[in-house]
Fold this sequence. Notes:
By secondary structure, the chain is of the alpha+beta class. The chain is about 20% helix and about 30% strand. The chain is built from 10 helices and 27 strands. The longest helix has 19 residues, at about 185-200. GO terms for molecular function: energy transducer activity.
Amino acid sequence: MRSPLLLAFALAIGTAGSLPSTDAAAQSTRAVRATAEASMVLTGNIDVAADGAVSGLVLDQRASIAPAIAAFVDGTIRKWQFEPTLVDGRPVAKHAPLRVRLLGRPGADGNTEVRMTSVDFSEYDDKATDAVTAEQMRPPRYPEAAFRVGAQGEVMLLVKVERDGAVADVVAEQVNMGVVAPEHVMQKMRDMLAKASISEARKWTFTPPTSGEDKGLAFWTVRVPVTFALSEKGSRQPPSPYGRWQAYIPGPRHQAPWRTTDDAAQVGSDLLPAGGVYMVDSATRGLRCIGPGVRLHRFHAQGVAVMRSSLFLALTLAVGGGAALVDTAAAQTAREVRRQAEASMTLSGVIDIGREGQVEGFQLDRREKVDAGIAGFVENTVQGWRFEPVRVDGKPVQARTAVRLRLMADNPDEGSMRVRLVDANFSKAGGEREVSTDKVTSERLRAPEYPPQALTMQGEGTVMLMVKVGRDGTVADVIAEQTNLTVVGTARVMSQLRDILAKASVRNAKRWTFTPPTTGEAKDREFWTVRVPVRFAFEDSRERYGRWAAYIPGPRQRAPWKTGEETRVAGTDLLPEGGVYMVGRAQEGPRLLTPLG
């Protein structure tokens, strides 16, 4: 899958909640993002004949898996060869559960490399007598500090079990995180989750094997996966969407000090289902593949259908797989909040207009940075526009105008994406960009400080301010018209965060000053109303051209004064940051006669 999975990465770990950095010397958040991987775990059953050849393969919920992915897994596994399973010294057919992990990485050539990285045929049986089983394994408490900042991840424990079933030693072999932050913050989060897991694991007890080849060992080593996940209802482990990519940041692997062999690369060790106890180096570890266990494949997206489904994936990752804000189970669930998710994209270009107002040409800026499906949609839409003819001395003339376009995508039925053009702004015919004296312009607009509480909550978003400007250029009144957030949590937490960002913006805006218009139709008004977007984010928003930015739209508020805008204008919640936009003022440039699209 070409740009879509790349898009999913960008959203999952680019616009979802990040943790702020206070140490400039630490590895940057961008560098951490570069280590991100997208993983998909598929399950099913495999049948292996007596000679070790694969005789049957069934993937669970195949309808939920992209056809290209399912075909890749089928084609890979059916070519494998296994070490024959012996019963009383004779080879027999074997039926076993199957778990496969796929890894997706954006390639340098624009395609996405999909690799089968690990496979597991283990099945935990709590009644088995030839393996270590759980006796008392209470899950660890969620560390309060980790809970507060929305830290999520999985800790893979290596546990040394004594002959009496007690824990002799335990290490955190690896901690994979589902949130992103500067490296020093990631280390702290991994440490919090690992320490909580180890502390609780020391109290666990196990039942040693009483039969089989392993029963006489001096001790046993088992792997136990511990998941820290914050669901919309406060449960510890929400079900992962089957057949979808999940973004995560892999942590470093550590070797247990009591082990003499290094099995850090053991295939399938990162696939073990939560809730089980899995013996390491067991003599009865199940099927053993002796053929190629991994395979690389490149997917290239073709057609609009792929674009739609992958954009849905991108939104899912953006507001589902990244850092989450959590609150009480009695609040509106985070899943309900996620359903409100939208994504926007800003594009620009140049339009050539004929004497009759028809579009004679359209050039999209930096087309190579835009998904081919999106670029085609925009070009086809613009080519169908018609403008009011541009006149010079009363005669229609050819004209050229710069245009800034805003696209929006949402998820109406959780199964497909609807992409639409919601706003278009044109410069004056001919492309003049001189400072205008017939509109309100900024004089002193200092950005607000990041509220400390929002920093603690990882809060990011954009506050759209509606400002009433007096005739002396000072602020007579100001409201937060709308606050769109780029992190997800329950409705109560989202409301608190919107309130924090809005109050900081309003308080700061009251000190702003503007330059009123001195020419034009609006110069004699008693006051003017302008919109000013204020963005709170932990990284620069530049270099986002051609990329979707996911957000959760907040409720809109009406100004208590008359703004001159009787009805809501499309795209007013998506104005670019850094500008001052007059309300109720006729748009500059050519007048579009046809609908946007």
